């Protein structure tokens, strides 16, 4: 079963008075385009997380966001007194040098400055147990995303089957027009010759040239190749997971055969069928971009 590149997964686990959350989402992309946002304390395991995602998701524009929050009753942060002292000294010096008044609300001014608070959640080091928990949460989020991708893949599979069936129906409708097309071409050429007064022609040579001309307009090979591509597309659709690129290549080959049929059609009814095939194929090409 194919997988979509679009998906979302989320996982949460409580550890040491912290609620650790991982969210991962993906969109379509030709290659793996990975962006990770982590708390500073988790930066040392970023490479491990990248490797896990690369092995699990293969392709797509992937965003991973990991954050932690204090659970109810846990102390999230405390005042950074040393930093606040330094800020106050510098603000007082600035007031004297620039001849501007000091702040009326020292509390509000100081607490809005960077690093006014220090949090136990953002300590520079974490132990191995917490590292393992973070990895576990990320893996669970990835599992959720893959479940989403599988569900979306099933929807895409049904969509492709419907469109391939529509092209197959249009292709089957071509045959009844082929014999009548030859007769119409022959009649049109004969009618044009009869309108040329005083012109004589060799009927045997005319038949030979007519056969040669009709052979150039023959679409039997294009029909056969298109039929093979339709079958190959369905076989690929149900064989394995990461088939997006292959399905894209097959749809390009289908387009070549349909375009050649259109250039050889030389008949309004056949042109309508070809336009219908092109319409169905364009819808396939749009959605193939979302397949892993």
Automatic annotation (TrEMBL):
Q: Give a single Pfam family match.
A: YicC-like_N
Please state what the protein is called.
Answer: YicC family protein
UniProt family annotation: Belongs to the YicC/YloC family.
Q: Which cofactor does it need?
A: a divalent metal cation
Q: Which organism is it from?
A: Sodaliphilus pleomorphus
User: Is Nuclease a UniProt keyword of this protein?
Assistant: yes
The UniProt record lists the Endoribonuclease YicC-like N-terminal domain at 2-156
Q: Give this protein's Gene Ontology molecular function annotations.
A: hydrolase activity; RNA endonuclease activity
Q: What PANTHER family has UniProt attached to this entry? A: UPF0701 PROTEIN YICC
In terms of superkingdom, the source organism counts as Bacteria
All copies of the Endoribonuclease YicC-like C-terminal domain together span: 177-291
Q: Which UniProt keywords apply?
A: Endonuclease, Hydrolase, Nuclease
Q: Which InterPro entries match?
A: YicC-like_C, YicC-like_N, YicC/YloC-like
Q: What is the lineage of its organism?
A: Bacteria, Pseudomonadati, Bacteroidota, Bacteroidia, Bacteroidales
């Amino acid at each position: 079963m194919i997988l979509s590149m679009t998906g979302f997964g989320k996982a949460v686990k409580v550890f040491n008075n912290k609620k650790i959350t991982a969210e991962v989402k993906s969109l379509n992309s030709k290659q793996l385009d990975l962006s990770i946002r982590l708390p500073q304390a988790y930066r040392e395991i970023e490479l491990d997380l990248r490797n896990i995602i690369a092995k699990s998701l293969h392709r797509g524009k992937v965003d991973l966001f990991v954050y932690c929050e204090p659970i109810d009753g846990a102390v999230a942060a405390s005042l950074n007194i040393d930093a606040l002292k330094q800020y106050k000294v510098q603000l007082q010096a600035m007031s004297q040098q620039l001849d501007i008044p000091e702040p009326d609300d020292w509390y509000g001014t100081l607490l809005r400055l960077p690093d006014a608070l220090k949090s136990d959640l953002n300590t520079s080091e974490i132990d191995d147990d917490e590292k393992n928990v973070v990895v576990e949460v990320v893996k669970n989020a990835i599992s959720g995303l893959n479940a989403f991708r599988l569900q979306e893949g099933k929807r895409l599979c049904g969509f492709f089957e419907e469109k391939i069936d529509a092209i197959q129906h249009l292709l089957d409708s071509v045959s009844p027009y082929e014999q009548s097309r030859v007769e119409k071409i022959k009649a049109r050429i004969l009618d044009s010759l009869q309108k040329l007064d005083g012109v004589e022609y060799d009927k045997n040579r005319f038949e030979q040239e007519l056969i040669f001309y009709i052979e150039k307009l023959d679409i039997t090979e294009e029909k056969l190749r298109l039929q093979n591509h339709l079958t190959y597309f369905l076989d690929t659709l149900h064989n394995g997971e990461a088939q997006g690129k292959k399905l894209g290549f097959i749809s390009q080959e289908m387009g070549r055969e349909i375009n050649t049929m259109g250039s050889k059609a030389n008949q309004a009814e056949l042109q309508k069928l070809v336009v219908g095939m092109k319409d169905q194929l364009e819808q396939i090409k749009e959605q193939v971009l979302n397949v892993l």
